[in-house]
Structure formats: C-alpha cells, structure tokens
Design brief:
With 358 residues, the chain is an alpha/beta fold. It has two domains: 24-53 and 200-357, Vaccinia Virus protein VP39 (Rossmann fold); 59-176, OB fold (Dihydrolipoamide Acetyltransferase, E2P). The chain is 24% helix and 31% strand. The two termini are 35 Å apart.
Length: 358
Amino acid sequence: MPDVFLNCSYASVCSGCDWLLKPLTEQRSLKMAHLRSVWRQAPDHLGFATAGPGSSRDRIDFMIADGRYGLFDRFKTGLVDLQGCPQLSPALEAFFQDFRGFKFPISRGSVRLRVSPTGKRGVWLDFANIDVKTLLDDGQILRELLASGAIVEIGQRRKRLVEREGRLKLDDPVLEPWFETYVEGVATPLYCTIGSFTQPGFRVNRMLIEEVMSLVPMRGGRVAEFGAGIGNFTLPLAARFAAVDAYEVDTLALEGLEHVKPANVTIHSGNYQGDKALGLQFADADCLLVDPPRSGLMKFIEPVATAQKLIYVSCFAESFAADSDRLHDFGFRVEKATIVDQFPQSRHYEIVASFIKD
C-alpha cells in the first residue's frame, strides 16, 4: 500500500476523518494492531482490503448550524463549514455543492444527502418539529429544493415531501432503488429510503460483497442470514443456494427486501437478538452469515452454535471479539479474517471472518 495522503484543506480541524494526517500504511498497521489487541482468536495472518484513499462515499451525513454546513471540529467546540470533501464521489460532491446554495433558516439540524446508482438525488432533513412546521408554512425553500429535482424526506419517520394542489404535505415513506448489491458481479438494485442504513458507497460495498462471497460455498442447499437488512448479502446468497432464510428486525428494511426477494428467500421478521432466537437450529445449513448491529449477536449466538460454518461481518471490533470468544467455546476455529477498509482516513473498519467447527 503506497503512502498516499488525501488532499484536504480541513485535515487539521475536521473531525470527520480523524486519521487524515496519517499515511495509509500507518492506518493499516494501526487497524490491524487494534483488532489484534481486542481479539484473542486473531489468526497469524490478517488480510487487508482497501478501495483507496478517497471518493468512497455516495451518502454524507452532516449538520446545519447557523448557516454553516459541515461536521464538528476535532475539539467539538463548533462546526467546520465544509466547502467540499474529497471523501465524496464526484456525483455526491456536485450534489453537496448545489445543496450549499439552499439557506435554511434554522439554528441546528441534521442532513443526509444521497445519490442513487442512476444519479438520482435524495435529501433527508432531520429537523426539530418546530423548524419543520416553519419550513412547511413558508414553503419557499422546500419548493426550491423539490424544483431542483431532489427527492426530500423529513423527520425520523422519513416522510416524503410532496406538493398537491399548491400545498406542501408529508406522505408515507416511499422505497426506491437508492442502493445496489452485486450478484455474481452484476449490479442489482436495492430498495430503501434516503434515511435507511446502507454501506457508505457503491465502490466500497462491491469490495465488501466480493470479500464475503469469496468465503461462501460456490453452491449449496440452504443458507441462513442474520441481519439481512434490505438484502445486500441476501441476493448474492440466493444466487448460490437453493434456499435462504433471512432474519431481520427492521420492518422498513424488510419492505425493501420484499421488492427484490427471489422465490427461494424466506423472510423471518422479529428481534432475533432476543428470546425469539431460542430454539432455532442451523445444523442442516451449509453456511450461516451474520451481520449484527454494534451490540453483536447477543442471544442469536445460541442457535449459531448449532451451525458448522459461519461467516461473520462486523463494524465493531469489541462485540465481534466477545462473540468470537464464545464461538471458540462452542468449538469453532477461525479459517480466515480480513479487515475491509470501508472507512479510510478514520479509525473505523469492517471485519469479515469465517469460522468452522472442528
């Protein structure tokens, strides 16, 4: 990996990329050292996959505060007014520049900008209720935003902003193909809201999919998946297995999965980190793929113990390491582990590991 520095004029002040002043080789060493420090079962060889230093994001979350658009400074004392960001893809950077032209009369709020694989622009405004009411009553800036061609969602319930008979209204959430997965290398749309969880960008997600699928058997009868979400791994798995059991708690995410679900996928909705996991059996599954939230597997680890082969995807090393210790107690050993550097210039990373029961 070359010692590349990302050219950013905010490197010394912005908190968004806390390792921006470190060369990529040092970032790699620090991430591998951190994983080894918390994971007792780490193998002698750790893989490392990266898509490069920048242009990795097709969505960005930032703050608006008194006319400034950006992220907190390194000391959390104020907001850095970002004029641009080299972490953004060219399409998202252009959108960010255009969005800065809209001046919202609010003291503080959160914004997500997203571009779809086809270039559609989406905005999620997470403002206080009083600010939303003011914007709806005035109408001018929201109408200008809609006239620019952007799709707008507002609030934690991700209501869709529409105009009917001259009046602005908030409709129910609408799922659209804002993201994509890769089925045997072919880009395939995934349906969600602008505010839904996805991986940060298309290019880094393709890298993650390729790493995960390199560990999955080429063909099989049954696979189970915990943390299916909108189907990022579900669809690639469905292309290789006769049957896929997808477990997920987020009902809105599962509505997105229903849009693209192949006939061989069975959806199981509910909190499988809790008691609902008890009694599940995966002894007859060719493989089990888990992609839990930061809290880890929790009670789902009990049925995991019945599997023979496991692939674990995690963005939080501490809960991953704790689960790995329990998997070791259940008789699993690590086959392969790779750090997928989806978040270059920061201390964050993704882990992809495969386990097999002796």
